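I am writing to request your help with a piece of structural work I have in hand. What I wish to show you is a protein chain and, alongside it, a tokenised description of its three-dimensional fold. Could you please explain, in whatever detail you think fit, how the structure tokens follow from the sequence? You will find the record immediately after this paragraph.
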Amino acid sequence: MNESACKNTDRNLWRKNLNGLGPSIHVTEHGGIGIDVGGHVIVAPVERWHEAGNLFLCVNPNLKPWRWKLAMWLLNVTRQPKDRP
């Protein structure tokens, strides 16, 4: 092994395509959750991902009704077709 090479210690959890291409989710050696889309990876602790979901998807039962409906609609349209009822 090349001395300048680094050992990949990430554990893959999910890949959209079985051929290894496309979006993926992994856990880093230090417990961070990494999401790779288009070669751009964002790594954060699970608490930060949860916080981001609350902030950006507006998933909060105390929201005004129109915002709650919008959040639920966004969650529904982003699900895979096979997951929809």
Summary: The beta strands are 11-15, 24-27, 33-37, 40-44.
